[in-house]
Design brief:
By secondary structure, the chain is of the alpha+beta class. Helices cover 20% and strands 32% of the residues. Strand 9 and strand 10 form a beta hairpin. Bound molecules: FE2/S2 (inorganic) cluster and fe (ii) ion.
């Protein structure tokens, strides 16, 4: 089945991207124009004029209303047309869809589906992105590949060893088995890899200052369809969290991806790295930004190539899956269920 999971929140932008300039973004195949009213409220309207379908993002704002750049139809933040040229009466049908939007954790989220079902309390959280106790670097790279390929990629980090060798990949990542758990009701896939007494990749050696062997944890939470969290813990080998939960002997990085399908074969790849170490060191921020962006681009290049292969050889390829694919396959099944609108099987209660 094609299409995208409906009645879901997706990240459309970073909050700082939305201001009084019009911002056009395509989310799940729907063209949307975003802007911020003088009250601070973010508005998302269908980016096609009701008159002749001209993109509203080519127009301009006037007193918080959006004026179409072709013939001047003017819309308020609810999508209702308040002015048409050449006549006093505004047709009742002169309106465009206004999308539910919410700002949370540095992201602008948009609801794709029936607006009546939008509930901001169901948005999955990534609090580190703009929390005062964390220092964050972030970016967004457009991907010329279907978003499922990026979900596959992120749920199987064994590729770090090969695709990101010398950055975040070391031999032990591919060698260490993972555990996978699925919470169907919450639409979350958990994948965990715990490595003991392993090499410290340059990404963490240079940013944390740890020089020797490390214990390295990678605990993934994928909140389908859009939000991916990687809780990364790096500590000198043998340094464990205390019985009281104190883990100040370790360095922590919260790696956040928002994976938003734009069209069937293009994706917005929002990424962030939040850290609790070297928080005021600007050179560490610069290093993590440029190094992580290079890692992201290594994935982008590989997935763009895969998409080209899929497009030119659409039929008859039988994939071979192994243990490392358990998380990715769980993610695929969950996305398929959400896309087909099938409710999870209820968990029996005792
Ligand atoms: S297309 Fe927008 S006013 Fe004509
Ligand atoms: Fe990767």
């Amino acid at each position: 089945m094609s299409g995208f999971a409906q009645d879901q929140w997706y990240v459309a932008a970073y909050t700082q991207e939305v201001g009084t300039e019009l911002l056009a973004r395509t989310v799940c195949g729907e063209p949307i124009v975003f802007y911020r009213k003088s009250t601070g409220e973010v508005i998302g309207l269908f980016d096609r004029c009701a008159h002749r379908r001209y993109p509203l993002s080519e127009g301009h704002l006037s007193d918080d209303q959006l004026v179409c750049g072709y013939h001047g139809f003017t819309y308020d933040g609810t999508g209702v047309c308040t002015y048409v040229p050449g006549q006093k009466r505004v047709p009742r049908t002169a309106r465009v869809i206004s999308y539910p939007v919410a700002e949370l954790d540095s992201f602008v989220w948009v609801w794709i589906g029936d607006p009546a079902n939008a509930d901001v309390t169901t948005i999955p959280r990534a609090p580190w992105m703009d929390h005062e106790n964390w220092t964050t670097v972030s970016g967004m790279e457009p991907l010329d590949a279907r978003y499922g390929l990026l979900i596959d990629n992120l749920l199987d980090l064994s590729h770090e060893t090969y695709l990101h060798g010398g950055y975040i990949g070391t031999p032990e990542v591919a060698e260490t088995p993972t555990t996978t758990e699925v919470d169907e009701a919450a639409s979350v896939v958990y994948v965990s890899r715990r490595m003991t007494d392993v090499e410290c990749p340059s990404f963490y050696a240079r940013s944390t200052g740890i020089t020797g062997r490390i214990d390295r944890w990678q605990d993934i939470e994928y909140h389908a369809p859009c939000l991916y969290l990687l809780h990364s813990r790096i500590a000198p080998t043998g340094v464990a969290p205390g019985a009281d939960g104190d883990d100040s002997g370790a360095a922590h990085a919260e790696i956040v991806y928002a994976v938003t399908p734009s069209t069937e074969t293009t994706t917005m790849d929002f990424w962030g790295v939040a850290r609790d170490f070297a928080r005021d060191d600007v050179s560490v921020s610069e290093f993590l930004f440029s190094n992580n962006r290079e890692v992201v681009m290594q994935d982008v290049v590989a997935l763009n190539l895969l998409e080209k292969v899929i497009a030119t050889e659409p039929d008859g390829y039988q994939e071979l899956s192994i243990n490392i694919d358990t998380g990715g396959l769980a993610g695929r099944r969950m996305l398929q269920r959400l896309t087909e609108g099938v409710a999870p099987i209820p968990v029996p209660t005792a």
